[in-house]
Amino acid sequence: MDYKKLVLILFILLINNFIYSQNIQPDPVLSPGAISININRGTYLRLTTAIVRVTLPDSCWRIIDWGVVRNQAGNNFYVDIKTDKIDAICAMVIRTEIKEYEIGILPSDIYSFSVYNNGEYLKTVQFQIEDEVQTPIPTVEPTPDIRICGDYNNDGYVNIIDSVIIAQDYIKEFWHISNKEYRGIFEQGDVNNDNRLNIVDALLIALYQVGLIDELNCNF
Ligand SMILES: [Ca+2]
Ligand SMILES: [Ca+2]
Q1: Ligand nearest to the CA of 218
Q2: Of 78, 103, 129, which residue sits at a domain end?
Q3: 148 and 109 part of one domain
């Protein structure tokens, strides 16, 4: 056997050993740094949710069960996310997966929400619920003959309230907090006439109100 063949065989053995070592997965639990938790409370429905982002370090990690919110003693909620690692050559592709958990409609108090992974504790956030006085959004009976582009709540004015209600309706729909439920007049809210009512319309109305754009373009 000449020198070159020997080097080639040694090289192949090294590569095989490297791939084999990649297949051994001694630790199936994510690190705490892989988890981020944001607590969100719906403005009107008062439903508290936890938005959990899980960063998976390579292509071999899989989330096989997001679990459900459970309640420990007192005000402590937790979920246990089941993951596994497949036995394969792992591509170093970092992925983030997101899950929104409904915690519930909570009275004023201090709470915690924890994330476990395969039964092992990873991270906790504490949050406080305070019941503030709600400022009701004024609603006025519609005036069917006068249509004002941007006047989503149909109170005769185009102002920041229209922008806020559109944004809230959009956020509720986006996070699946409620089914599509428009509290205003769609045609008067869709101010860029793209047949969608979303954050762009809210932004355009806000810009219009402060004079940064001159007109809104509804489909009427
Ligand atoms: Ca209005
Ligand atoms: Ca629109």
Answers
A1: 2
A2: 129
A3: no
Question: How many angstroms is it from 218 CA to the middle of ligand 2?
Answer: 9
pLDDT per residue over 164-189, tens digit each? 999 988 887 777 666 666 788 999 99
Q: Dmax of the chain from CA atoms? A: 96
pLDDT digits (tens, 9 = 90+) for 137-161: 565 555 556 789 999 988 888 998 9
pTM: 0.49
**Interval between CA 144 and ligand 1 midpoint (Å):** 14
Cα-based angle 58, 59, 60 (whole degrees, multiple of 5): 95
Last residue of a domain, one of 129, 153, 185: 129
Neighbours of 70 (CB within 10 A): 12
**How does pLDDT run across 93-126, given as a tens digit for each residue?**
899 999 999 999 898 899 999 999 999 999 999 9
Contact 55, 34 (CB under 8 A): yes
* Residue 189 domain boundaries: 135-220
User: In total, how many domains does the chain have?
Assistant: 2
